[in-house]
Amino acid sequence: MAGNDRRLSRRSVLTAAALAAPAVLARRAAAANAVPTWTRHTYETAMARSGRHVSLTDAQFDAIQARKPAAMQRIAEYLKAHLHAADPRVMAAFEAVPREYFHYLYDQNRATPGDAYEDNPKPWALGYGSALSDYLGQAYMTQVCEPKPQDVTLEIGTGSGFQSALLSRIVRQAYSIEIIEPLGKAVGKIFAPLGYDNVSTRVGDGYYGWPEVEGGFDIIIVTCAAQYAPPDLLKQLKPSGRMIIPIGQPFKRGQVLYIYTKDANGKVHSRRDVGVFFIPMTGAMMKPRATAAAD
Fold first, then answer.
1. Buried b (16+ CB within 10 A) or exposed e, 120-139
2. C-alpha to C-alpha distance for 174 and 155, rounded to whole angstroms
3. Residues with catalytic function
4. For the segment 41-98, what is each residue's pLDDT rounded down to a tens digit?
5. Domains of the chain, CATH where assigned
6. Are 275 and 287 in contact (CB under 8 A)?
7. Residue among 147, 185, 150 at smallest CA distance from 167
8. Residue 31 CB partners (closer than 8 Å, separation 6+)
């Protein structure tokens, strides 16, 4: 997953949070109470439980936390400027998820928490050719998805896991697929130590989606650049669902974020959104279209 270059145009106003189902709110409250206060000790413990090592001094940990309020303000201002308002659910998710936990170079087995909440948001390397997107681009894409508490989501391109972690704080269930095996296996271990029990991941080719999930998905968010919208993803999108996908040529400027919607009758509609730049979707997407469809 890589960054959004944020060439923005007109946006519709997103409504504030709709009322969530009581059962979902109860689960959220129970989960929040079960997760200890985020301290250096809980951070290092969670990292160790996820199979990753980190060691910080209190001063280093406190310096990271001290940068977070300014980053939250940047996010709020950015969403207000480009989407007319910051969705309270999106802001709450960013406040809840500790971004420093997701800064890690997996091919070097090295934590990089000091890079979190940077003044000038940008993508950060994860290893194996993958990247953690800049947080303004992730905030934008999260809000454009319009996630709601009863939604089931699918992310194509798990990357760091941060995007699905954000969605998991809002939706009922978040699924995510990563095609890079060592990255996908490692990142699949990071959610449980945070108490995020509504995230399911697997290694595979996201081109084909996750057809075993009964009923499909309310939201599909693709965090790698495709050359076209994969037909299987559109099939797995529920009526009234939304798919957010960067489309364009690999490693070239000119990629565009598209928003696909499926109406109640199953008809798919699309519109161009903003200019973006993402690492490419690999696997079947790189094959001739007829060959990919036949696999």
1. ebebbbbbbebbbbbbbbbb
2. 8
3. 133
4. 999 999 999 999 999 999 999 999 999 999 999 999 999 999 999 999 999 999 999 9
5. 24-294 (3.40.50.150)
6. no
7. 147
8. 195, 196, 197
